[in-house]
Design a protein that fits this description.
This protein is α+β, with helices and mostly antiparallel strands and about 290 residues long. Helix content is about 35%, strand content about 25%. Strand 4 and strand 5 form a beta hairpin. It binds flavin-adenine dinucleotide (FAD). Flavin-adenine dinucleotide (FAD) binds next to strand 2, helix 2, helix 6 and strand 8.
Length: about 290
């Protein structure tokens, strides 16, 4: 890198002023695990956001919300969320992101900005209805899906993510992460997160997200609509069949488009069945 300016502001205003400059070309430095190796070679200045106090994890009671600071590390996320019903899936997927040395340094904001197609944590954040608080000219809140759709444009505009907000679901909500990878500890090729609250076999607040089937993780809204307030055991297969049929994943060296689609179907089925407390169908859906 050609970096010849390093700034570590203590206030948000100072950080925003530095980030708004058109020259020199400036990047946000969070944990630095991606930036140090992958940053474009023409970055000349970095603004280290580690002094802004954006690493807090706050449990808000009204409305029930977890407010996750953008510079909280993945390891802190694991330790803060593993005992929160319905949000423990964020701890499980943060653990699946990388080895501990990296998790101690990489931040939640950095993980969202650099999320690839099969990011386990971003897949789970989508299923948990995450919203981002961003600072551009003023403070805005955007849904994570909206951010992912316009990520390149928003980043060019120099936005700073300050906080990630995740509603705390009812205590009977269960969220399940499923994935397929080359080895038990490897990063996933395809992954799925399903979440619902069950009442006498009827699902409420159904959320389904899938990674590895598009350029970023995506929500599968069609399955959610098809199962909401329905007997899951009766409608599950049809809901999954239609929604997965509409996917058009690209193939790569890890798996063809057809493989990714079929794997997504199996993983979504497993995740939903487990979240809904249905018996697993041994053998029928092996991948
Ligand atoms: C050895 C090694 C192994 C790795 N293994 C994995 C792996 O298995 N899986 C994986 O997913 N990743 C892996 N990574 C990549 C890296 O750890 C992740 O991309 C990480 O989540 C980035 O977070 P960070 O805080 O370090 O971000 P940084 O490197 O500091 O920044 C990354 C990008 O995000 C921007 N950014 C950061 N925070 C904000 C914010 N709050 N607002 C706006 N923009 C922001 C930065 O400007 C930069 O463009 C690995 C990296 C290394 C060095």
């Amino acid at each position: 890198m050609q970096v010849n300016e390093y700034h570590k502001p203590n206030s948000l205003d100072e950080a925003i002023t530095l980030l708004r400059r058109t020259t020199p070309r400036t990047a946000i430095l969070a944990g630095g695990t991606w930036l140090n190796g992958e940053a474009p070679r023409d970055i000349e200045a970095v603004v280290d956001i580690g002094g802004l106090g954006l690493n807090q994890i706050i449990r808000q009671s009204s409305p029930p919300l977890m407010r996750l600071g953008a510079t909280a590390t993945l390891q802190v996320l694991i330790e803060s969320l593993r005992d929160v019903p319905g949000l423990d899936v964020l701890a499980i997927t943060a653990h699946a992101m990388a080895a501990r040395n990296i998790r101690n340094q990489a931040t939640l904001g950095g993980a969202i900005v650099t999320a690839d197609s099969s990011s386990p944590l971003v897949t789970a954040l989508l299923a948990c209805d995450a919203e981002l608080v961003i600072q551009a000219d003023e403070e805005h809140t955007v849904t994570l899906s909206g951010f992912l759709a316009y990520r390149q444009r928003m980043l060019v505009e120099g936005i700073l993510i300050t906080e990630i907000r995740v509603p705390i679901p009812s205590t009977n909500t269960r969220a399940v992460y499923q994935r397929v990878a080359r080895t038990p500890r490897d990063y996933p090729i395809v992954c799925a997160v399903a979440r619902c609250a069950m009442n006498n076999g009827i699902a409420g607040n159904v959320r389904v997200a899938c990674g590895g089937v598009a350029s970023t993780p995506i929500r599968l809204n069609a399955i959610e609509f098809a199962l909401e307030k329905k007997l899951v055991a009766e409608h599950l297969d049809q809901a999954i069949h239609s929604a997965i049929g509409a996917l058009t994943p690209q193939g790569d060296w890890l798996g063809s488009g057809e493989y990714r689609k079929e794997t997504a179907r199996v993983l979504v089925q497993r995740a939903l069945a487990e979240a809904a407390g249905l018996p697993m169908r041994a053998g029928k859906h092996s991948v």
